[in-house]
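> call design_seq(struct)
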């Protein structure tokens, strides 16, 4: 944990209310963590069936373009935060005119756009995948010599879990791939032949203090996170480098809250930042069961101006997402020793939908490979 001198904000204490934009499982787990601290949550979501509604003190069903609903919501809470990065900029501005919005809307707007996100990281001297913006015919032609092939074309905004992405194997596929993404602004990224995907979940408090959870390894299937292994087996150098990257970003954004930094490890042992999430993250779910203070409580603490909690891992952990019908296996999972089952209370178990997760705990230093 690193401490900096700054004027602390007036904390939102027990009995206070946090407004959360977004009502998915992340909002749900934030609300559950807030409850442990005696804090209440009000959830704002356009979806009437939001899983977070089941565990919060108040909820609003309205669109993010509904200025009056947003203003009323802001007035009803002590601080505003969010559980997903695609909060429209206008909504963040309406809210921040009335209440503190954390992480700050400026950081949100930079991270929402893959091109500005990667440019920001690069500007701090942080290594990223090679990239170029494609938003015109001229930039399309200019991108290839910079990035080369194979490459991945991604929409600059609103992509997640591999949606809005096309692999470009040869130069002549690029124009068609951009057509396929409806010629919206895109980023062309060099395809990284990585050895593995790593992430670090980090937090910065209102006083500038930072704290990071252990570096973890993530395994994906069909672009969706399947398993997180905590800790990642990595050298002290790599772990230190990951923490330094996260801290640099947190400070540069003047960030308050939890942030996840997803990275690729290259064959020659370098870390390249792939994506920043301005929120709690799926690769930090293991912290609920393997740390005294989870990423969810950490985020609540940060945005409420509390001291950050201890990020020490008391067990090794393997977190596996339960997708679609897999969540139906809860009776067998619940019977396993040293296993925590998390069910998000979602109705329809569509294929690939994140319905819950399971975290298996192991004594320190003993987690299996998978
Ligand atoms: P993203 O939406 O950027 O997190 O990408 C989703 C997944 O696609 C990543 O977790 C990687 O497995 C893969 N991927 C994304 N970008 C690249 C890249 N530049 N090179 C290789 N694989 C990638």
């Amino acid at each position: 944990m690193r401490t900096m001198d700054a004027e602390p904000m007036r904390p939102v204490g027990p009995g206070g209310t946090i407004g959360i934009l977004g009502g998915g499982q992340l909002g749900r787990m934030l609300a559950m963590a807030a409850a442990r601290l005696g804090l209440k949550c009000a959830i704002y979501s356009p979806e009437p069936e939001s899983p977070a509604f089941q565990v919060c003190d108040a909820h609003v069903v309205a669109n993010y373009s509904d200025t009056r609903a947003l203003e009323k919501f802001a007035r009803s809470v002590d601080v505003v935060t969010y559980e997903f990065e695609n909060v429209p900029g206008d909504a963040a501005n309406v809210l921040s005119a009335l209440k503190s919005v954390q992480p700050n809307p400026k950081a949100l707007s930079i991270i929402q756009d893959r091109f500005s996100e990667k440019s920001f990281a690069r500007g701090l001297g942080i290594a990223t995948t090679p990239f170029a913006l494609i938003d015109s015919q001229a930039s399309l032609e200019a991108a290839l010599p910079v990035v080369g092939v194979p490459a991945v074309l991604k929409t600059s905004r609103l992509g997640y879990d591999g949606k809005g992405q096309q692999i470009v194997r040869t130069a002549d596929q690029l124009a068609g791939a951009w057509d396929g993404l409806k010629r919206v602004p895109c980023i062309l990224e060099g395809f990284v032949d990585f050895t593995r995907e790593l992430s670090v979940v980090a937090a910065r408090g209102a006083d500038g203090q930072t704290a990071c959870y252990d570096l973890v390894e993530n395994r994906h299937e069909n672009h969706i996170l399947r398993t997180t292994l905590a800790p990642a087996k990595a050298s002290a150098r790599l772990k230190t480098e990951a923490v330094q990257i996260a801290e640099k970003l947190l400070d540069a954004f003047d960030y308050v809250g939890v942030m996840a930094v997803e990275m690729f490890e290259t064959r020659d042992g370098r870390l390249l930042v792939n994506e920043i999430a301005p929120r709690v993250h799926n690769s930090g779910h293991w912290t609920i069961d393997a740390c005294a203070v989870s990423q969810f409580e950490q985020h609540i603490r940060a945005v409420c101006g509390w001291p950050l909690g201890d990020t020490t891992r008391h067990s090794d952990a393997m977190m596996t997402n339960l997708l679609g019908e897999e969540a139906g296996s809860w009776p067998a999972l619940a019977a396993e020793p040293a296993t925590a089952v998390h069910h998000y209370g979602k109705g329809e178990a569509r294929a690939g939908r994140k319905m819950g997760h399971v975290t298996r705990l192991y004594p320190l230093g003993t987690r299996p490979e998978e």
